[in-house]
Amino acid sequence: MPRKFGETLAAGRVEPAKRVGYAYDVRMKHHFDLEDHDDPHPEDPRRIYWIYDILERAGCLKLMRSVSVRPVTDTQILRVHSRSYLEKLKQTELMEKSTLLEAQEEYESVTLCTASHYCARLSAGGLLGLCTEVVKGQLDSGLAIIRPPGHHACQNRAMGFCLLNNVAIAIRELQTHGLVDRVLVVDWDVHHGNGIQEAFYSDDSVLYFSLHRFEGGDFFPTGGAGDMDKVGKDRGRGFNINVPWAADGVGDGDYMYAFKRLLLPVAREYMPDLIVVACGFDAATCDPIGMCNVSPECYGAMTAMLRGVCSKVVLSLEGGYNLDAIANSALGCVKALLGIRWSAGLVPQAASFNAYATLSEAEINGVQTGKLVYEAGWLALPKWDPAVEVPECVRAQPSELGKQVVDRVAGEVGRYWQSL
């Protein structure tokens, strides 16, 4: 008779329950650029497989539970998007190539094929299914390995590789059924999530916190929507916090300072029922678009810090365009969800990102190399001893320019939060 998870094995050792989930469906790879021949589009269909593959090789998927991916319905989409836009998206399923290429020109930085509409429904549905299991207590946390991404998708238009706003659709559905009251959305994609901001700008039931390259509004999406003075309106005033980096090159120290100085105090004051991370990895070292320097270790540390605020954390893949960097960064996040620490000296370095196929099993697997049996209590979050165990990224110092930006944001939103 097969053993059940949680059943005692021997000498007090237990096989852990699978309390961390993931959503993945290979069908989402069928959304692709019709003109993508010798030069792959940045939003490469391989992105989700690269993450899935490294998690499998690391032994993480054996410790996680797969969540079924079902496409979202019209009703669920229409809580965020207009009917006219949805009908346009539906029409792409019947278009010939020439017509599709014309249709995508209506939007900024968008690719379309006949499968795009269905893949977008699967992407939003994967996140919704995972979030639903987490808020119902069937899982503690999870990672949605989904595409196309969603945080730029607005009520009436596609934008920036995004067709449907996955995060907004999931949250609105959960709220409609009374499953959550307060949601914290942390958007660490290197681009401002203008679509998520638009959806919740007047809403105090969702606190939106975004860290992104801004550069005076010159970085995509251009304009002033991502500036620090955009704090929400009406009931939502104070519930929209933008950290607009002034230049490229921001790294671990800048993100850690933003978390410790801004996000963690506000998040603890807000006391969310659920944290959803718009989890783009395009601020990672070696990303060709983001041009920043956030390490896999830092992504893991940020994930662990959020779990310290609320145990219900769901990460939803957004951007990230270096396949090796997003794989290692996702691995860092999943290890934090599972409570697995990086082994000393085995945190993937930037140089490794250019040679994924040559990474040794030790570099990929870190501490837990395919083990299925752990001591009781192994899922507990690490207790970081400041003298010994604090990850190097947590000790990293912010750049002077990064510190100035974070301090200015604190001044801008401090009137709304006692913790600041």
TrEMBL record:
<dbReference type="InterPro" id="IPR023801">
    <property type="entry name" value="His_deacetylse_dom"/>
</dbReference>
<dbReference type="GO" id="GO:0141221">
    <property type="term" value="F:histone deacetylase activity, hydrolytic mechanism"/>
</dbReference>
<keyword id="KW-0156">Chromatin regulator</keyword>
<keyword id="KW-0378">Hydrolase</keyword>
<keyword id="KW-0804">Transcription</keyword>
<feature type="domain" description="Histone deacetylase">
    <location>
        <begin position="41"/>
        <end position="337"/>
    </location>
</feature>
<protein>
    <recommendedName>
        <fullName>histone deacetylase</fullName>
        <ecNumber>3.5.1.98</ecNumber>
    </recommendedName>
</protein>
<dbReference type="InterPro" id="IPR000286">
    <property type="entry name" value="HDACs"/>
</dbReference>
<dbReference type="GO" id="GO:0040029">
    <property type="term" value="P:epigenetic regulation of gene expression"/>
</dbReference>
<dbReference type="Pfam" id="PF00850">
    <property type="entry name" value="Hist_deacetyl"/>
</dbReference>
<dbReference type="GO" id="GO:0000118">
    <property type="term" value="C:histone deacetylase complex"/>
</dbReference>
<keyword id="KW-0805">Transcription regulation</keyword>
<keyword id="KW-0678">Repressor</keyword>
<comment type="similarity">
    <text>Belongs to the histone deacetylase family. HD type 2 subfamily.</text>
</comment>
<keyword id="KW-0539">Nucleus</keyword>
<dbReference type="InterPro" id="IPR023696">
    <property type="entry name" value="Ureohydrolase_dom_sf"/>
</dbReference>
<dbReference type="InterPro" id="IPR037138">
    <property type="entry name" value="His_deacetylse_dom_sf"/>
</dbReference>
